[in-house]
Amino acid sequence: METNIIEDKQYPLQGTGVLTPPSGGGGAVGSSIQVFAPATVANVVCGFDVLGFAVNEPGDEVIMRRTNKAGITISKITGDDGRLPLNPAKNTVSVSVQHYLQSIGRTDIGLDIELHKKMPIGSGLGSSSASTVAGLFAIKTLMGDDTDASTLLPFAMKGEEMACGHGHADNVAPALMGGFVLIRSYEPLDVVRLPHPANLWCAIVFPDVDVPTREARQIIRNKIQMKDAVTQWGNIAGLVSGLFMQDIDLIGRSMKDVLVEPVRSMLIPDFYVMRELAMEMGAVSFGISGSGPSVFAFTRDEDTAKRITAKLQQHLTSIKIGSNAYVSTINDKGPRVIG
Ligand code: HSE
């Protein structure tokens, strides 16, 4: 079995054949690049830590330039209200890029990074993942490394571990690979791209309250009842079946979470009111995006998604909470070079 070793942590690779070790620097080496990487909705209600999908917007951008001096600098971060570190030893983008360079034996390279945050931090939309994935895709492309983007997954997981204390892959995998992704196993790492109905729309609303993932993970129960486990794995299997069968009704009735949502919903203002509003307006399903506070609804069309975001934002305004909203289909491409 192939193994990617990053510091003390091993990420054995097996399964789908998508993951292969990076070749690193096989092709032409560029000097500057600008990359966009998308936001993601992790968990997808019933699949805690094992399901996620990418959306078209929002997302983050990284500009990476080669420099003459070995090592990584971060010259600029915008859109973060001063919350993210410019110190390359403390920033998830530079740290994961450094891991990549180490793995290909190219720590002689000099790089300068600009990070442009185009999405809220601590929103439950995979903010740190989008930045990390943009940085990793930028260095991979600059190095002329033409292996599949999924080879960057172990490095991106290192970034997640640094950001919230746990290297979960349900944001970074869809951000890197695009589409709907199942983390079938963490040890060994085995990720599977899932199909999805083309007309599945996603309405996202971010209520402007801070819910750090690290803390949202700490409040989850460690032990669960067998009857709850049975409910949960029935729903996960139902959701995955619905995706394969293009059965939106099955997708909707499977998106129920008896393990995490009952606890985390307490961190989200009027979560159950928002759910009722969305379902009354024709949502297929409704739940927490990642660790929250963002919420999302699946719909069958763009118009319903737009009407739901407008209604939820109106409700949040009425309880004096600001919000952002996004409407998107599922992004099957993942990161892309934009300059
Ligand atoms: N699966 C992770 C969690 C996603 O729910 O904590 C974080 O965005």
TrEMBL record:
The lineage of its organism: Bacteria, Pseudomonadati, Bacteroidota, Sphingobacteriia, Sphingobacteriales. PANTHER family: HOMOSERINE KINASE, HOMOSERINE/4-DIPHOSPHOCYTIDYL-2-C-METHYL-D-ERYTHRITOL KINASE. The gene is thrB. ATP binds at P120, I121, G122, S123, G124, L125, G126, S127, S128, S129, A130. InterPro entries: GHMP_kinase_C_dom, GHMP_kinase_C_sf, GHMP_kinase_N_dom, GHMP_knse_ATP-bd_CS, Homoserine_kinase, Ribosomal_Su5_D2-typ_SF, Ribsml_uS5_D2-typ_fold_subgr. It catalyses: L-homoserine + ATP = O-phospho-L-homoserine + ADP + H(+). The keyword Transferase applies. Its EC number is 2.7.1.39. This is Homoserine kinase.
